[in-house]
Design goal:
This protein has one domain: 3-Layer(aba) Sandwich (Aminopeptidase), CATH 3.40.630. Helix 1 packs across helix 3. It is globular, with a radius of gyration of 15 Å. The strands form two sheets. It has a five-stranded antiparallel sheet with strand order 1-2-3-4-5. Strands 6-8-7 form a three-stranded antiparallel sheet, covered by helices on one side. The chain is an alpha+beta fold. A hairpin with an 8-residue loop joins strand 4 and strand 5.
């Protein structure tokens, strides 16, 4: 990893979006996002029911990962308004050999190309700033929209896996291997 450990991720910008690290002030947005019916269906219940739960979720999740690894999930905001619309970023899981990309957007902001725009920027950031030659994604096998997005990004299905503590298998997608070092 070329970025020093413990350094918060750089803010990323695209034509329409800014991706920045989560802060505790994002708790209301995080609470809405993790309780969205599609999040609950495809990602799972994080038991975030109050603003305090959301602050704890952010502190133990994205903020802790920034401090430990210098990467993590980022808030996706519209440049034009500053409104948070989703999340996209890189995650280092103990249960996967490679860093994985994740994304989720509020229902009002789906179908407008924001997820693709954000995910392209995150993949480029992972390769350029973290030296990742291979990035993976895990996805519910019935999440057709996310699978289409992953395939558009160039990730290809490799196999199904079962994450620790989960009863349902998920699909593992990966970027094509390259000669760059693995993350």
């Amino acid at each position: 990893m070329s970025e020093s450990m413990g350094t918060p991720p750089t803010v990323l910008e695209t034509e329409r979006l800014r991706l920045r690290p989560f802060s505790l002030e994002d708790a209301p947005f995080a609470m809405a996002l993790v309780n969205d019916p599609d999040w609950l269906r495809y990602i799972g219940d994080r038991n975030v029911r109050t603003i305090q739960d959301a602050e704890s979720y952010l502190r133990k999740g994205p903020v802790a990962m920034y401090e430990r690894l210098g990467l993590g999930m980022l808030v996706v905001v519209l440049k034009s308004t500053g409104e948070p619309i989703g999340t996209c970023g890189l995650i280092r899981r103990d249960t996967l050999d490679d860093v994985d990309i994740g994304f989720a957007f509020l229902p009002a902001h789906r179908g407008r190309g924001y997820a693709l725009e954000a995910a392209k920027a995150v993949l480029e950031h992972g390769r350029r700033d973290h030296g990742l030659g291979r990035i993976v994604a895990i996805v519910s096998r019935d999440n057709e929209r996310s699978i289409r997005l992953l395939e558009t990004l160039g990730l290809r299905f490799e196999r199904t896996i079962r994450m620790p503590g989960d009863e349902v298998e998920v699909a593992l997608y990966a970027t094509p291997s390259s000669s760059s070092p693995r993350g």
